[in-house]
């Protein structure tokens, strides 16, 4: 039951932990299935790109260079897809979690995949808005200390657009509309939003570290999934 009043940070974090306890296995299962598909696609992309480059210049050195050149963008693409899929899955889980309905990993994945591109767009636009000015200043050659005054602006924008990926996934909005929706939701509640996102991130980091320590390789596979899904 969701109270018809603004929720406090403790209630929000408690609700997230309850949802993770009830649906965490299916959520992580859906994410791992999606990541497996993305990994297979990434390997095919690397193989095709390296093979095409090797045909153009068939030497051992060229083969190695082509493999590296294909590996870097393909790995970045894989990480971006996993990041966006995690946000889309978290958004897809909201309706059944609030209503107490049963879900399956495949059902979550089917609901999340169509919204993954929009969630990725919202993620990237929010990141660009928050970190873009500082990144441009560093690229222009300014020393890090000169860029330091931009840190409060980056933090303010990061929190302002923190809800954009969830809005893109849950409300079926485009990336720009999701940023506007996040800004509207956070306006007047910036400190409360910060008070939820920071502890959520800290809990996710601590839990992910514990998983890696306790379960070894399996924990290392599950930890990124937890880091990506719990704050959302």
TrEMBL record:
Spans through the membrane: 30-56, 76-98, 119-140, 146-168, 189-208, 214-230
Protein name (record): Integral membrane protein
Alphabetical keyword list: Membrane, Transmembrane, Transmembrane helix
Keyword Nucleus attached: no
Species per Swiss-Prot/TrEMBL record: Streptomyces caledonius
Domain of life: Bacteria
């Amino acid at each position: 039951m969701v109270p018809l009043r603004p929720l406090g940070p403790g209630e929000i974090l408690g609700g997230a932990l309850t949802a993770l306890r009830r649906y965490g296995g299916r959520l992580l299962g859906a994410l791992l299935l999606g990541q497996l598909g993305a990994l297979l696609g990434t390997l095919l992309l690397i193989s095709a790109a390296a093979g095409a480059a090797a045909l153009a210049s068939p030497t051992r050195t060229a083969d190695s260079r082509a493999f590296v050149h294909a590996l870097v963008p393909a790995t970045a693409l894989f990480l971006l897809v996993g990041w966006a899929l995690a946000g889309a899955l978290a958004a897809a889980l909201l309706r059944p979690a609030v209503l107490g309905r049963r879900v399956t990993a495949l059902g979550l994945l089917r609901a999340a995949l169509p919204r993954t591109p929009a969630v990725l767009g919202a993620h990237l636009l929010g990141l660009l808005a928050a970190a873009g000015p500082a990144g441009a200043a560093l690229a222009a050659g300014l020393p890090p200390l000169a860029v330091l005054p931009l840190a409060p602006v980056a933090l303010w924008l990061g929190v302002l657009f923190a809800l954009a990926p969830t809005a893109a996934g849950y409300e079926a909005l485009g990336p720009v509309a999701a940023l506007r929706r996040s800004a509207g939701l956070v306006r007047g509640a910036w400190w409360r939003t910060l008070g939820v996102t920071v502890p959520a991130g800290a809990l996710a980091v601590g839990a992910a570290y514990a998983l890696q320590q306790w379960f070894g390789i399996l924990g290392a596979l599950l930890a990124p999934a937890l880091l990506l899904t719990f704050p959302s």
